[in-house]
Amino acid sequence: xxxxxxxxxxxxxxxxxxxxxxxxxxxxxxxxxxxxxxxxxxxxxxxxxxxxxxxxxxxxxxxxxxxxxxxxxxxxxxxxxxxxxxxxxxxxxxxxxxxxxxxxxxxxxxxxxxxxxxxxxxxxxxxxxxxxxxxxxxxxxxxxxxxxxxxxxxxxxxxxxxxxxxxxxxxxxxxxxxxxxxxxxxxxxxxxxxxxxxxxxxxxxxxxxxxxxxxxxxxxxxxxxxxxxxxxxxxxxxxxxxxxxxxxxxxxxxxxxxxxxxxxxxxxxxxxxxxxxxxxxxxxxxxxxxxxxxxxxxxxxxxxxxxxxxxxxxxxxxxxxxxxxxxxxxxxxxxxxxxxxxxxxxxxxxxxxxxxxxxxxxxxxxxxxxxxxxxxxxxxxxxxxxxxxxxxxxxxxxxxxxxxxxxxxxxxxxxxxxxxxxxxxxxxxxxxxxxxxxxxxxxxxxxxxxxxxxxxxxxxxxxxxxxxxxxxxxxxxxxxxxxxxxxxxxxxxxxxxxxxxxxxxxxxxxxxxxxxxx
Length: 518
Known about the structure:
Elements lengths: L2 E8 L21 H5 L8 E5 L8 H6 L4 H5 L11 H9 L3 E2 L10 H9 L4 E3 L3 E3 L6 E2 L1 E5 L5 E8 L3 H4 L2 H4 L2 E3 L2 H12 L5 E7 L20 H7 L4 E4 L6 E6 L2 E5 L6 E9 L5 E9 L6 H6 L1 H11 L2 E5 L3 E2 L3 H7 L2 H14 L3 E4 L7 E2 L2 E3 H5 L8 E7 H12 L2 E3 L5 E3 L15 E3 L2 E5 L8 E6 L2 E2 L5 E7 H4 L12 E6 L3 H11 L2 E2 L7 E4 L1
Parallel strand pairs: 1-2, 2-3, 3-4, 4-6, 8-10, 10-11, 11-13, 16-30, 18-28, 25-31
Antiparallel strand pairs: 1-14, 5-9, 7-8, 12-13, 14-15, 16-20, 17-19, 18-24, 21-28, 21-29, 22-23, 25-26, 26-27
Helix pairs in contact: 13-17
């Protein structure tokens, strides 16, 4: 007899519960509340999530700034505990989740607060805390009402060790996932009719050609599919919408971020053991789940009031810009972020990047403008770099440029595939530099001038960067292990708000630091 499993799978919701992107108050086709309102709940359906749940939105940003007493006031009822994100997942009926790298951004205590109030079972075979406080299991075997036995395993990219605050990492045991997954799969396969992996990681290869696109082990889904052969691999982390397809030995799907859709997967296990897959991305349409909207209304009201607080005044607006044009001609917005970082750090040079998508900052600045533009949970680090290391750092950013068949400057595929990564192009202030894109990759930086003179070989300079970049992420391995002059454990968005508040009339730096040739 054929037996069928239905799945609703989300990932990388990043705290977007209401149907808003917080750039304004418009109702949009997004948010976990809209998705959850349409979830089926029966004994042959599993509601699953792939992590990055409690970081990334203005709601998460504000909630984790509040005192414990203020946090407890953020729900309309104490019946659901005090954590709004756990309450949302519980009302939506989630049964199993895994961890994403950003779920550690607010520390182990915050993660424990979320997981301890979560009805769903958290599965993550390659990460656990040294004290055993976090309620995490490596796998579970779930039997459906129709008798189908489903083996569920969770795993997260081990690059958490590179990105996360060292004080958090030292409390955790984080291992490479593939060897552990191989052992678990061998153990559970005889006990299951179907094996499912919740993997907070993405694809390192082109799914059509199999060509490897990166040497990084941040994403290993292709390796997992080819070497291990889970029946179904539910991926995340990359924010690449993939309705579903076979790749090597596994069927794979991936939702994008901020909950604009849910992956609806149907698996039929036939009497002979063969399996058939069907899947689609169901959009966030209709009305939000009323119980969740009502429950979280006090928190949402607090978020909106906080966002509308005026912060200060700039002498010009800093709108969202075309990525390529601003990389070529300079970005006043990037200059402003670097101005803030230089003021906070005392460094000679600053570097920052811009998100793939962001709101931009008007001349009359509110908190909403800042947190909708600088969307990452980063702190600042000041490194001491030699000219050669700084040149290698800049060379990686110079790889952003390529030429099309007509010789026109375009963005390199290395920053567009397998996912769009404008945020990995860094823009420098406090230094005048030249990228000659007619030269080979690795030989494009032809000038580095500080205080009007060329920086000499062996000369050192202080450079302020964010904590994500200091980990070497994005292809910047040359920054790992460099001398740390200062570690500033304050969120960059907070630093920007403080700078704007304390400097009521700000003149925006419009200097063009980078000259792009070619």
